[in-house]
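This protein record is not my work; I was only asked to verify it. Would you go through it and say whether the fold makes sense for this chain? Here is the record exactly as it was handed to me.
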Amino acid sequence: MITHGKNIKIFTGNSHPNLAKEIADIVGVSVGNSNVGRFSDGEISVDINETVRGADVFVVQSTCAPVNDNLMELLIMMDAFKRASAGRITAVIPYYGYARQDRKAKARDPITAKLVADLLTAAGADRVLTMDLHAAQIQGYFNIPVDHLLGVPILSKYFQDFNLNEDEVVVVSPDLGSVTRARKFADRLHAPIAIIDKRRPKANVSEIMNVIGDVKGKVAILVDDMIDTAGTITNAANALADLGAKEVYACCTHAVLSGPAVERIKNSAIKELVVLNTIPLTEDKMLDNIKVLSVAPVFAEAIKRIYEDLSVSKIFE
């Protein structure tokens, strides 16, 4: 249990209560007594059943599907805490929804990631704690501190425990946008990288072009920040298998897994998919070859450090 000045309180909406409880247990506190329900017309109702005056409040809520419901729950909870004189409010958002709408890709596009940042600040967030934003520059959309945690150290540690020889493994970036992430992952395994050059004819449709790098006879590990419809990752895995990769693993921070994702993964060359629990996986998505690792220890450590005014970046050093 932390004892440092004002109280620490951890609350949760309905998006991922299990993760919130796991984090609270590690920090050494109970999840705050609150209830987030619905009025008969569908409006969100929030009851905070304990005092938060002067407290350091952390609200754990992933803005995953149903995205708009979970986002509104978070906004309304923070408004309630602000009006109840909470000392400081930190929005703990393991998965930040709308992050892919981070720029104008074509004329008259909204930049929804920036709109969400403005909404969070307007609702009362004093700071944000999140993990693996789809576009790192989203941190700059906020005028409040953003602590950006990384999934790569957790994922790479899992594969380090395989004790693979450096010359039999290759880390693969499924597209050009993930090269930096793949490079950091590969550095931890002391492995080379390969890059898949693909083009995307339209949204949620990807087409493999060619593979830059040597994958023949190697254990290939695909690394991405999120898997949504799983088109990119399964096309990549199948291409690697066709090019003679001995085994193909895949890993990501955010397992969105929408639409045909589960079916695609089931029928692909992926031997094992390793994901983090920033988004809760429902029973129908828990395939035998999906391994879920917990982010709770990292978030708990970050929350302790924010509470005690210590450096959060030291977690990854």
In short: The chain has a mean pLDDT of 94.
